[in-house]
Amino acid sequence: MSAAGAVRDFPLPDLGEGLADAEVVRWLVAPGDAVAVDQPVAEVETAKAVVEVPCPYAGRVTALHGAEGDVIAVGSPLVSVDTAASDRRAGPRVPGAVVPEARSDGPAEPGGGGDGAAPGGSGSGAVLVGYGTSEGGRRRRTGRVLAPDGPGTTASGAPSASPARPGGRTPVVSPLVRRIAREHGVDVTALTGSGGGGLVLRRDVEAVLAYRRGARDAARGADTAPPKAAAPDRAERGDERVALRGARRAAADRFSRSRREIPEATVWVDADAGGLLAVRAALNAADPERPVSLLALLARFCVAGLRRFPALNSRVDSERSEIVRLARVNLGFAARTPRGLVVPVAHDAHAMTTRELSAALRGLTDSARAGTLAPADLTGGTFTVNNYGVFGVDGSAAIINHPEAAILGMGRIVKRPWVVDDELAVRPVTELTLAFDHRVCDGEEAGGFLRFVADLVERPELLLGEV
């Protein structure tokens, strides 16, 4: 028999970026299994990537709170562990555990009072939002810890206020949460966060907004809870509902925000792709073991173009009314996966050779399709390139990947009539399209960038002058 109170629920921690939930992809333990400190217990898919979640204390698993495919909210129990079954000392760190990077909105202590540490006082080596590491590296988070059932309410049903946090900052994980609260006039200092250590999450702000809407409807005499109509049988209506989860939900949110916030404009040009195809054939013949893709060549041309036209490698800081021109080129590109569209990022693309860049794009694509990208591989992009010619289309008015300032795409390469030295010829032609944030530059600079890239597509040897 376990000692009273020895069974502890390990709640799903916030895996960064203020994500509200995660889908269980695969359980790595079963009830009855012994677990050591920092041993991964589940693979979960967030809106960013598939990651392993390490348990911050040792013992024996008594329950799994969900099946594979279930979506679990941050702060809800993930597994239950009987800590009395361990030797009450910190277990060894399991080699190969994937540990998400912690956010730094506020210091943390394990689980707000010991739940995040191994029995006996030695801390978990895992770095999770709301969970500490070791005693030496542990930092305290201000704000109280909530009961497992989430934020409290007042007698009127309004979200309850948190106690004062003397000398400390209200723990809000995501800048997005702060922005939503600011836009809707919500005072986050008056909220009780439902995340670990009192973290104020997006759902906490949305709960306040939902309560306000309900109060307004009640004041107007509106029926806020209409009777639920009987849903017709799916076979009769022929409809299908597909949940927006993981990468698909993240992409939907990003696209919507881009359309709301970025005043984009689009320019395009046709280019003779004969030179592009010739240089790729020459490079691959010279070194078949390290092939170069068309996307890699286009990406290399874009990097050279961004050196000449740095305004396209920037972002807008709306809070400070500033345009931030970025020194590094972190190149994003669209990749299709079984889980939906993702945009992996080749960091420091400006420092890579053409073959290195091609290898980086290929490796990130393979990882994306296998679902093994790290969260860092999906963030930090400064410019996006896309080869939508693989879909058999000539052009596309692409959506800018917020908060970047531009995206360039290439359509399919097809044989078309083309004038060469005043003579009509049949040439392989492609369409290049650039969507750009009109706040960072005007059409002259955007057109100059696009024309420069098109010139390199037609005559890749011009790149030698840019090296």
TrEMBL record:
<dbReference type="Pfam" id="PF02817">
    <property type="entry name" value="E3_binding"/>
</dbReference>
<dbReference type="InterPro" id="IPR023213">
    <property type="entry name" value="CAT-like_dom_sf"/>
</dbReference>
<feature type="compositionally biased region" description="Basic and acidic residues">
    <location>
        <begin position="231"/>
        <end position="241"/>
    </location>
</feature>
<keyword id="KW-0012">Acyltransferase</keyword>
<dbReference type="InterPro" id="IPR000089">
    <property type="entry name" value="Biotin_lipoyl"/>
</dbReference>
<dbReference type="InterPro" id="IPR004167">
    <property type="entry name" value="PSBD"/>
</dbReference>
<feature type="region of interest" description="Disordered">
    <location>
        <begin position="84"/>
        <end position="172"/>
    </location>
</feature>
<dbReference type="GO" id="GO:0016407">
    <property type="term" value="F:acetyltransferase activity"/>
</dbReference>
<dbReference type="InterPro" id="IPR050743">
    <property type="entry name" value="2-oxoacid_DH_E2_comp"/>
</dbReference>
<feature type="domain" description="Peripheral subunit-binding (PSBD)">
    <location>
        <begin position="172"/>
        <end position="209"/>
    </location>
</feature>
<dbReference type="Pfam" id="PF00198">
    <property type="entry name" value="2-oxoacid_dh"/>
</dbReference>
<protein>
    <recommendedName>
        <fullName>Dihydrolipoamide acetyltransferase component of pyruvate dehydrogenase complex</fullName>
        <ecNumber>2.3.1.-</ecNumber>
    </recommendedName>
</protein>
<feature type="compositionally biased region" description="Low complexity">
    <location>
        <begin position="221"/>
        <end position="230"/>
    </location>
</feature>
<comment type="similarity">
    <text>Belongs to the 2-oxoacid dehydrogenase family.</text>
</comment>
<keyword id="KW-0450">Lipoyl</keyword>
<dbReference type="InterPro" id="IPR003016">
    <property type="entry name" value="2-oxoA_DH_lipoyl-BS"/>
</dbReference>
<dbReference type="InterPro" id="IPR036625">
    <property type="entry name" value="E3-bd_dom_sf"/>
</dbReference>
<keyword id="KW-0670">Pyruvate</keyword>
<dbReference type="InterPro" id="IPR001078">
    <property type="entry name" value="2-oxoacid_DH_actylTfrase"/>
</dbReference>
<dbReference type="InterPro" id="IPR011053">
    <property type="entry name" value="Single_hybrid_motif"/>
</dbReference>
<dbReference type="GO" id="GO:0005737">
    <property type="term" value="C:cytoplasm"/>
</dbReference>
<dbReference type="Pfam" id="PF00364">
    <property type="entry name" value="Biotin_lipoyl"/>
</dbReference>
<feature type="compositionally biased region" description="Gly residues">
    <location>
        <begin position="109"/>
        <end position="124"/>
    </location>
</feature>
<feature type="domain" description="Lipoyl-binding">
    <location>
        <begin position="7"/>
        <end position="82"/>
    </location>
</feature>
<feature type="region of interest" description="Disordered">
    <location>
        <begin position="216"/>
        <end position="241"/>
    </location>
</feature>
<dbReference type="GO" id="GO:0031405">
    <property type="term" value="F:lipoic acid binding"/>
</dbReference>
<feature type="compositionally biased region" description="Low complexity">
    <location>
        <begin position="150"/>
        <end position="169"/>
    </location>
</feature>
<keyword id="KW-0808">Transferase</keyword>
